[in-house]
């Protein structure tokens, strides 16, 4: 009989995983403790913008015309426990307020609520990003609480999806990593992932601590690459070098590779910043803090970039933002997402606002979330409206829409044709040819 899957938590990770499992042919039951989220998902919609996800949901959510009917949702733990053979726990692990450590309370409470109802053999699979050591602790807790005792097992299966590519990354992962303690758990997970879509995908079987560490190590490496190139940009600026050329040239070395070497205002979002901080905090608890002191520097290079963008903009408008209209293109932490968590773009916009600039923000998808987080900023309905009468334009999130803007028309609408590219994604030659003064982080002024 085919395995039945449940997915606990319906954020980016959970909603995508649930829909992807249904796409792979499984009967899936998703759970969230927020009834409004469930109501939205049941109508084939999501609370966040994620390309392709709503289409995938509508293909499978029961009750939607023409759907496979394989995906349902509930708020009831007992229903989930009764339904599933394999339970994926996909809840959030945010940074604790005022601390580096990560907040495990959502994972703990999800695992406990589920375990109490598990009265038949089942596999609980943690997918959330957690500090190393938690899988071991949670395995003991589940064994203590589950009525089926040792018939219930835990496994850890970290998820590497990127926002904006969540569907693609889930259906076509680079690798599948499973931390297991028994052959039975490994067999079940192989069965879950033994689909034509994932055929040929490396399947790495390991222990609990390694599985947990793979995720934090991968994110730390990515953060390090970004801060490395941003550090190079900091040196290029006074030296007159061009960090974009530099990145291209070092990226041809296959050992380095071209990806994640785009210099600019740095990384943000709900993952990289908090993951490297939680990793440092955990290494400290393990007595290995020295091993990760470099991550403190990675974090400070990253945070410094935001201030440097503000300084660059202030210098460009003559040393003070007072009386200056500043157009900010981009509010989300990256394109193809409406997520503004720890967004470098909004941080820069907020700093300029605090220094007296009249900031107007436009973002293709992040306006509602940005308004909620920064209600004191002004918002425009289009890039052209934001740029109208601006003394300086800051390009802070590299949406495709911004690369397709008409520099000539915008130059006529702006008070000053002055553009600063905080993402190194626009073509300086095109903007300069249209009469703009174009500056970019880590690149020569002209
Ligand atoms: C990241 C990891 O990539 C993913 O594997 C993990 O599962 C979750 O965390 P995500 O947060 O969606 O994914 O974003 P990512 O694409 O990694 O970008 C993170 C930030 O780095 C963004 O703010 C982006 O603008 C910035 N970035 C990325 C750069 O500044 N330069 C680059 O070259 C690449």
TrEMBL record:
<feature type="binding site">
    <location>
        <position position="129"/>
    </location>
    <ligand>
        <name>NAD(+)</name>
    </ligand>
</feature>
<dbReference type="Pfam" id="PF03721">
    <property type="entry name" value="UDPG_MGDP_dh_N"/>
</dbReference>
<feature type="binding site">
    <location>
        <position position="37"/>
    </location>
    <ligand>
        <name>NAD(+)</name>
    </ligand>
</feature>
<keyword id="KW-0520">NAD</keyword>
<feature type="binding site">
    <location>
        <position position="215"/>
    </location>
    <ligand>
        <name>substrate</name>
    </ligand>
</feature>
<feature type="binding site">
    <location>
        <position position="32"/>
    </location>
    <ligand>
        <name>NAD(+)</name>
    </ligand>
</feature>
<dbReference type="Pfam" id="PF03720">
    <property type="entry name" value="UDPG_MGDP_dh_C"/>
</dbReference>
<dbReference type="InterPro" id="IPR036291">
    <property type="entry name" value="NAD(P)-bd_dom_sf"/>
</dbReference>
<dbReference type="InterPro" id="IPR028357">
    <property type="entry name" value="UDPglc_DH_bac"/>
</dbReference>
<dbReference type="GO" id="GO:0006065">
    <property type="term" value="P:UDP-glucuronate biosynthetic process"/>
</dbReference>
<dbReference type="GO" id="GO:0003979">
    <property type="term" value="F:UDP-glucose 6-dehydrogenase activity"/>
</dbReference>
<comment type="similarity">
    <text>Belongs to the UDP-glucose/GDP-mannose dehydrogenase family.</text>
</comment>
<dbReference type="InterPro" id="IPR014027">
    <property type="entry name" value="UDP-Glc/GDP-Man_DH_C"/>
</dbReference>
<dbReference type="InterPro" id="IPR008927">
    <property type="entry name" value="6-PGluconate_DH-like_C_sf"/>
</dbReference>
<feature type="binding site">
    <location>
        <position position="268"/>
    </location>
    <ligand>
        <name>substrate</name>
    </ligand>
</feature>
<feature type="binding site">
    <location>
        <position position="341"/>
    </location>
    <ligand>
        <name>NAD(+)</name>
    </ligand>
</feature>
<feature type="domain" description="UDP-glucose/GDP-mannose dehydrogenase C-terminal">
    <location>
        <begin position="327"/>
        <end position="428"/>
    </location>
</feature>
<feature type="binding site">
    <location>
        <begin position="260"/>
        <end position="264"/>
    </location>
    <ligand>
        <name>substrate</name>
    </ligand>
</feature>
<comment type="pathway">
    <text>Nucleotide-sugar biosynthesis; UDP-alpha-D-glucuronate biosynthesis; UDP-alpha-D-glucuronate from UDP-alpha-D-glucose: step 1/1.</text>
</comment>
<dbReference type="GO" id="GO:0000271">
    <property type="term" value="P:polysaccharide biosynthetic process"/>
</dbReference>
<protein>
    <recommendedName>
        <fullName>UDP-glucose 6-dehydrogenase</fullName>
        <ecNumber>1.1.1.22</ecNumber>
    </recommendedName>
</protein>
<feature type="binding site">
    <location>
        <position position="93"/>
    </location>
    <ligand>
        <name>NAD(+)</name>
    </ligand>
</feature>
<feature type="binding site">
    <location>
        <position position="334"/>
    </location>
    <ligand>
        <name>substrate</name>
    </ligand>
</feature>
<dbReference type="InterPro" id="IPR017476">
    <property type="entry name" value="UDP-Glc/GDP-Man"/>
</dbReference>
<feature type="active site" description="Nucleophile">
    <location>
        <position position="271"/>
    </location>
</feature>
<feature type="binding site">
    <location>
        <begin position="160"/>
        <end position="163"/>
    </location>
    <ligand>
        <name>substrate</name>
    </ligand>
</feature>
<dbReference type="InterPro" id="IPR014026">
    <property type="entry name" value="UDP-Glc/GDP-Man_DH_dimer"/>
</dbReference>
<feature type="binding site">
    <location>
        <position position="274"/>
    </location>
    <ligand>
        <name>NAD(+)</name>
    </ligand>
</feature>
<dbReference type="Pfam" id="PF00984">
    <property type="entry name" value="UDPG_MGDP_dh"/>
</dbReference>
<dbReference type="InterPro" id="IPR001732">
    <property type="entry name" value="UDP-Glc/GDP-Man_DH_N"/>
</dbReference>
<dbReference type="GO" id="GO:0051287">
    <property type="term" value="F:NAD binding"/>
</dbReference>
<feature type="binding site">
    <location>
        <position position="163"/>
    </location>
    <ligand>
        <name>NAD(+)</name>
    </ligand>
</feature>
<keyword id="KW-0560">Oxidoreductase</keyword>
<dbReference type="InterPro" id="IPR036220">
    <property type="entry name" value="UDP-Glc/GDP-Man_DH_C_sf"/>
</dbReference>
């Amino acid at each position: 009989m085919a395995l039945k899957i449940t997915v606990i938590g319906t954020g980016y990770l959970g909603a995508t995983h649930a829909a992807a499992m249904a796409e792979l042919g499984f009967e899936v039951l998703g759970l969230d403790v927020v009834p409004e989220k469930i109501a939205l998902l049941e109508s084939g919609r999501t609370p966040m913008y994620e390309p392709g996800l709503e289409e995938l949901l509508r293909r499978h959510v029961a009750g939607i015309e023409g759907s496979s009917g394989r995906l349902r949702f509930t708020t009831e733990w007992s229903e989930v426990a009764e339904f599933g053979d394999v339970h994926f726990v996909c809840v959030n692990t945010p940074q604790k307020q005022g601390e580096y450590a990560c907040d495990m309370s959502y994972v703990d409470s999800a695992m406990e609520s589920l375990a109490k109802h598990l009265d038949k053999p089942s596999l609980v699979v943690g997918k959330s990003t957690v500090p190393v050591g938690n899988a071991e602790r949670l395995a003991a807790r589940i064994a203590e609480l589950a009525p089926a005792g040792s018939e219930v097992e835990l496994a850890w299966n970290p998820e590497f999806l990127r926002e904006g590519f969540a569907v693609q990354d889930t259906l076509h992962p680079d690798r599948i990593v499973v931390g297991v303690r028994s052959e039975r758990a490994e067999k079940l997970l192989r069965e879950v992932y033994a689909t034509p879509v994932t055929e040929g995908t490396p399947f790495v079987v390991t222990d609990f601590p390694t599985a947990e560490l793979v995720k934090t190590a991968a994110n730390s490496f990515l953060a390090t690459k970004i801060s490395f190139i941003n550090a190079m940009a900091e040196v290029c600026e006074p030296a007159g070098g061009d960090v974009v050329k530099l990145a291209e040239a070092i990226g041809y070395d296959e050992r380095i590779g071209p990806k994640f070497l785009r210099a600019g205002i740095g990384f943000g979002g709900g993952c990289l910043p908090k993951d490297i901080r939680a990793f440092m905090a955990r290494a400290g608890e393990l007595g290995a803090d020295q091993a990760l002191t470099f991550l403190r520097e990675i974090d400070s290079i990253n945070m410094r970039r935001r201030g440097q963008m503000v300084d660059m903009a202030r210098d460009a408008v003559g040393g003070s933002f007072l009386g200056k209209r500043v157009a900010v293109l981009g509010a989300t932490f990256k394109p193809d997402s409406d997520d503004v968590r720890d967004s470098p773009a909004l941080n820069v916009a907020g700093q300029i606002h605090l220094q007296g600039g009249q900031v107007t923000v436009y973002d293709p998808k992040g306006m509602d979330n940005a308004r909620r987080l920064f209600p004191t900023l002004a918002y425009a309905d289009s890039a052209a409206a934001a740029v109208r009468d601006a003394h300086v334009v800051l390009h802070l999130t590299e949406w495709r829409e911004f690369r397709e803007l008409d520099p000539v028309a915008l130059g006529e609408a702006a008070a000053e044709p002055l553009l600063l590219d905080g993402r190194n994604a626009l073509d300086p030659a095109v903007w300069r040819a249209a009469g703009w003064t174009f500056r970019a982080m880590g690149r020569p002024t002209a």
